[in-house]
Amino acid sequence: MHTFRDAEGREWQIAVNVATIKRVRDALDLDLLAAGDPDPTKDAIVRLAGDPILLADTLFVLCREQAETRGVTDEQFGAALAGDPIDRATEALLAEIVDFTPAPRDRERGRKVLQKMNQVIERGRDLLDQRLNDPELDEKLLCELKRSIGTAGGSPASAESTPDPSPSES
Between 110 and 139, where is the model more confident? Predict the structure, then answer.
């Protein structure tokens, strides 16, 4: 069983088992075991990654009994999922899905997939940081802005060189 803390500091336990998989499927038409489906509209990981509302709803279904005990509504639950808490909840959910996998070799394969996925995400973040910190990017953006302003209704210089008609000329 994996846990995460929401933005309010509440700890939630996630359990993926036959009963909770059925509960999620019945409530949300989402099969948590459909990871890796060639059809992205059926792949649970793709659907969860692309839809934070579906992710929050899935987490709530998995944590519903705890929420009812604590008097937390689904809206309050969702409001406490942002930033780091939703990231940690996602990690906990994915790890729990992998741990549910019956065959030891498949579990190990699933762990490797999660590890590789996290490595690729971190590498992408590193590349983005490098790109954002590149001084050439600042220069390119500035040139593009100047070009864009220059083509929007003429250049500022041409507007300044054209005098306004004086009131006596009207």
Answer: 139
